[in-house]
Design brief:
The chain is mainly alpha-helical. The chain has one domain (5-86). 70% of the residues lie in helices and 7% in strands.
Length: 89
């Protein structure tokens, strides 16, 4: 099975882009909703979001869905081509 280098790059770039976009939004949302703690390792004790990892879970889920949908589409195209060669379609 020949996989294009652009597909590999897309599977690397998409999670990075999703993370870069979602982490700040989720962090700000959590701070606004009061889901935060104080950073005990700093003198100023700034507020930090407690559930910032939700963005990473969303990123993983979106990337996995895109990957598996891509596989399903490729399998359907292969199935169509086989049927076309066999004269079933």
């Amino acid at each position: 099975m020949d996989i294009n280098i652009l597909e590999y790059l897309a599977y690397i770039a998409l999670p990075a882009i999703f993370s870069l976009l979602l982490v700040p939004k989720v962090t700000n949302f959590m701070l606004e909703k009061g889901v935060y703690g104080n950073d005990m390792n700093k003198l100023e004790k700034p507020k930090v979001a407690e559930m910032g990892g939700v963005a990473l879970i969303i990123t993983f889920t979106l990337t996995a869905l895109i990957y598996f949908l891509n596989i399903l589409i490729l399998l359907e195209l292969c199935n169509y081509q086989v049927k076309k060669k066999l004269g079933e379609d």
